[in-house]
Amino acid sequence: MSSVAFETQRAALADVVAIPVTPFAEDGSVAQDTHRALLRRLLDGGITTLTPNGNTGEFYALTPEERRLVTELTIDEAGERAVVLVGVGHDIPTAVASAQHARELGAHMVMVHQPVHPYVSQAGWVDYHRAVAEAVPELGVVPYIRNAQLTGARLAELADTCPNVIGVKYAVPDAARFAAFARDAGLERFVWVAGLAEPYAPSYFSAGATGFTSGLVNVAPAVSLNMIEALRSGDYRAAMKVWEQIRRFEELRAANGSADNVTVVKEALASLGLCRREVRPPSKPLPESGRAEVAAIAAGWSI
Questions:
Q1: Above pLDDT 90, what percent of the chain?
Q2: Which burial class, exposed, middle or buried, applies to 184 when counting CB atoms under 10 A from its CB (0-12, 13-18, 19+)?
Q3: Where are the beta strands (DSSP E) in the chain?
Q4: What is the pLDDT of residues 7-66, one digit of tens each?
Q5: Which of 31, 52, 180, 267 is buried deepest, with most CB atoms within 10 A?
Q6: Tens of pLDDT along 178-234?
Q7: What is the spatial distance between Cα 38 and Cα 218, in angstroms, rounded to a whole number?
Q8: Which residues of 95-126 are buried (b: 16+ CB within 10 A; e: fewer)?
């Protein structure tokens, strides 16, 4: 497939890439109606890129059947209103099957989760992503990079054999390393998505990113859109005003090795009456003592 055919996908990555939560029912199952309502709220709020089965969606806590369900619900609800980037991962056959399932449902792209194997070689990283990308040549493929050891040259090597690798979700918390990696891989060759969301978006945009992922967007779509509008216009002062507005919320999510990353988002949604606060292990709900602060932040965004 020619690069021209991936123009829609590339444009969708240069945006707020929303990572929806997966709400649970009282019995612990996926709350399907609530999930649809949350997706509609994002779409009605102006979000046009959705990533089911991302980390904010508790990807690693979902069963294979639940991951398929979340993909199906998201693609059905999105319709023509959004581009869907489906998270895939685990062992290669599982990742490939998930990517093929996404393709069958009409998804536009897949995001390949960082391999969680304790022993990752750079050549093995290329082989893993090549196996997924070659299985779905019609889909755009977006590696999710959290490995500071990986070089930009390896990404370029992958894309040489798999032209459908069109974007990168870069989530190493080091703006200088990102700037170097992007230039080593090809700054114009890929769409660079700041994979550590709003707190890192201004610094990563200054180095070449044109999109960012967001979990906060579940709570306040307008806040995330305000930030990307400021960044697109090069108004870093305005972007940092948004940064200041979200700083405490994101600090709570990032504390203790991001222990409460999803928890804080779901707590904010619960405070707004939009879904239950329950998360699955290894996440844990916020203690009572922390709930009021999250609720106050969410209320302050005037949603």
A1: 96
A2: middle
A3: 16-18, 49-50, 83-88, 109-112, 140-145, 167-170, 191-194, 211-214
A4: 999 999 999 999 999 999 999 999 999 999 999 999 999 999 999 999 999 999 999 999
A5: 52
A6: 999 999 999 999 999 999 999 999 999 999 999 999 999 999 999 999 999 999 999
A7: 7
A8: bbbbbbbbbeeebbbbbbbbbeeeeeeeeebb
Are residues 139 and 102 in contact, defined by beta-carbon separation less than 8 angstroms? Answer: yes
> How many residues are recorded in the chain?
303
CA distances (Å), 112 to each of 91, 97, 269, in order?
11, 12, 27
- Name residue, tokens 């999710």: 144
Residues 43/71, Cβ–Cβ less than 8 Å: no
In the block, tokens 């009605």 appear at 44
CA nearest neighbour of 268 among 243, 282, 248: 248
Burial (0-12, 13-18, 19+ Cβ within 10 Å), 7: exposed
Q: CA-CA distance, 48 to 170, in Å (whole number)?
A: 20
Q: Radius of gyration over alpha carbons of the chain, in Å?
A: 18
d(CA 271, CA 252): 16
Among 56, 57, 142, residue whose Cα is nearest residue 95: 142
Q: Which residue from 10, 19, 22 is spatially nearest to 47, judged by alpha carbons?
A: 19
Tokens of 43: 């779409």
